[in-house]
Specification:
With about 180 residues, this protein is of the alpha/beta class. Helices cover about 35% and strands about 25% of the residues.
């Protein structure tokens, strides 16, 4: 899901000695990427059936695509096929129970999901999918973002203390990053 290749190009700039590929099913997005970033191989393809050899990649990055997939486990199978054993998978995706949704849930209201997403997952759900898919979780990370509303900042601090006390895997920020290693 590289889209027009902007993030893929940023990776290439940072890791210029490496071969970098971008894949998206949008013909228009890939046409744009190919015309603007000639030093990267972009391909139009279905990520469920990525057109690469088995165990081809050392690292695969899925940036904000997981929440758009109707079958993330099928995607994970495709990734596992083309990722080398001990290769690294990096996923970023929204946290279903970020602080505002957690407040809504505690008030008995429905959580708000983006109308553009098929679903949003909890940290535990993504971790379970990765384990089921033959990956060992290396790190789960979410940068703490300061709230502009002081009341929300205090509430967030209280939630963080509570979640640490009960050893919850929930993350209060809107985006979570996962690093996992292919083990099988």
């Amino acid at each position: 899901g590289c889209g027009q290749g902007l993030l893929t190009n940023a990776f290439k700039k940072e890791f210029s000695d490496y071969d970098v590929y971008g894949l998206d099913r949008s013909i228009t997005a890939i046409e744009y990427a190919n015309s603007n970033f000639s030093n990267i191989d972009f391909v139009v393809a279905d990520a469920y059936n990525a057109p690469f050899e088995e165990e081809y990649f050392d690292i695969i990055v899925c940036n904000n695509i997981w929440e758009h997939l109707p079958d993330p486990l099928n995607m994970l199978n495709s990734i596992r096929r083309i990722l080398k054993i001990n290769g690294q998978l990096i996923i970023s995706t929204p946290s279903r129970y970020h602080v505002r949704n957690l407040v809504r849930a505690l008030m008995g209201k429905n959580v708000i999901l983006s109308k553009h997403h098929i679903t949003e997952y909890t940290v535990g759900q993504i971790e379970e999918q990765l384990k089921f898919g033959g990956f060992k979780i290396h790190k789960t990370y979410s940068p703490i973002i300061k709230e502009s509303d002081w009341k929300m900042q205090i509430l967030k601090l209280i939630f963080y203390c509570f979640l640490r006390t009960i050893k919850s895997h929930h993350v209060l920020e809107s985006t979570v990053f996962y690093s996992a290693i292919r083990i099988s």
